[in-house]
Please model this.
Amino acid sequence: MRLVWSSLWVGAMLLLFTDVRAQAPDPVVVTVSAGDLDRHQTVVRFHLPDHWKAGHYRLQEIEGGEGAPWLQLSNDGEATFVLHQLEAGARRTYRLSPGQRVEPQTPGVPIRIEERTISLMKGGEDVLRYYHRENELPAGLDPMYRRAGYIHPVYSPSGVQLTNHLNEAQHPHHYGIWSAWTSTEFQGRTPDFWNPHNHSGRVVAEDSLQVAWEGEVHAGFRSRHFFEDLSAEVPVIALNESWEVTLYNTGDRAYHQFDLELVQTVNTGQPLALPEYRYGGVGFRGHPDWDDPANGRFLTSEGLGRDGHATRARWVHIGGESHGEQAGIAILSHPENFRHPQTVRIHPDEAFFNYAPSQLGEFEIRSGEPYHARYRYITTDGEPDPEEIERLWFDYAYPPGITVQPE
Model:
């Protein structure tokens, strides 16, 4: 019996080895076209054909003068690298072969996983922290404010903290960067997932971390959250939500850049209706020092400040002074987002902002029709530079063209 099984195993391994060798990837030529935009520290993403091994590669330049940038290949075949400089109308060509796979000694964008949080880092310093397990509450705060599944703190390149959470004096249900809906209708009830102290709904995200990675080009994680309707006789999950957060190693020390992509699907097959309302979706709560209206300032892509509330914007910057340091964050909305350009909620007095597509009227999240939202966050020190934010938005919205061809 052992001999038979051994023979079968050897035969299977030979077949597998032969199959793998036959399917080993051939070298390819990757051409990047700038299009109509000047490119600087631009994130480039594309998919490689099957059978490429995940890991890091050094691109070999054929045309141009950029050298050998790192390329990071994920398990799903998505390749990412940073295009450092390319003028409008120009192109750059690289050769990529399996032999160019090499792992860096230390990742340029490492992660640190602790009991409650995961941190994404650059240059040995935290850029952002995500709660994959529930936070610890200050004494006396309603236990309903316990929550995981949000980002706090977020830091500027010089280390200025930009977000706030669990502020006992003012909106303790604001959690840095988080997702929730306020006015909803589900199965004949009206759960509020934004205000947990109303005890009609909450977002559950305990042990939410599904996968995390680090690398030379980017680091990140994927997580799962659940919108629980507490107004039913027996609590029921109305929505499933997935997050993917990615921090990029752009090489530009003037800013940090990370993406949030979320997908929401109904859990029971029944729709979640979202009536017209002034806020709800992905929120941002700024540093408590910015709650002074004379200190905290807003700027939209249309050149408006706090008067930009209920207007449509491609990007919004929020910032101010904290402990003598000026810093801020720009939140860029992707053109594929629902009802783009989305309307915005800008608080008249406080450091709160979110894109609120429900301002334009009711909509539903239905079975087979997921709700997608994509945002890019740019953290900076000093006063905002609208021309630079505009350039970064166009980079995000209209990335360079890519062609991948056999060598």
Observations:
- The mean pLDDT is 92.
